[in-house]
Amino acid sequence: MKHTLGKEERLKSKKLIEKLYEHGNSIKVFPLRMVYLQTSHTSAFPAQVGVSVAKRNFKKAPDRNRLKRVMRESYRLQKEIVYDNLQDPYVFMISYLGKEETEYQEIFSKMNKLLCLFIKEVQSTTHEKKNTEL
Description:
Elements: H1 14-23, E1 25-29, E2 32-38, E3 47-53, H2 61-78, H3 80-83, E4 90-96, H4 104-133
Parallel strand pairs: 3-4
Antiparallel strand pairs: 1-2, 2-4
Helix pairs in contact: 2-4
């Protein structure tokens, strides 16, 4: 697998983002929060991801941009956790909830926990759906 995060893998559609926040589920591993939704999208990849940092917590754009860059990088290096375990297409948004900047190593480890928790949630919901169909 290529460790890239290209245009096709990024969540850009305003309609999809609105749908995500209206109907999506969320999980948290402080300081990260993921809102996810199983839905079809235009990409050939199994997931589209977006990152956000609240302007309320970080007034200066360079601080927000640095955190978003670090979050995208930590996702990019660990995305095979998600790609290897998804059968259906998903969209998700990862938000930074903390009020202070965190180091790269901590964000990397929290991203790992968040992605593993996401896979557990997805697998448990698909397992429950299969049991109810039988």
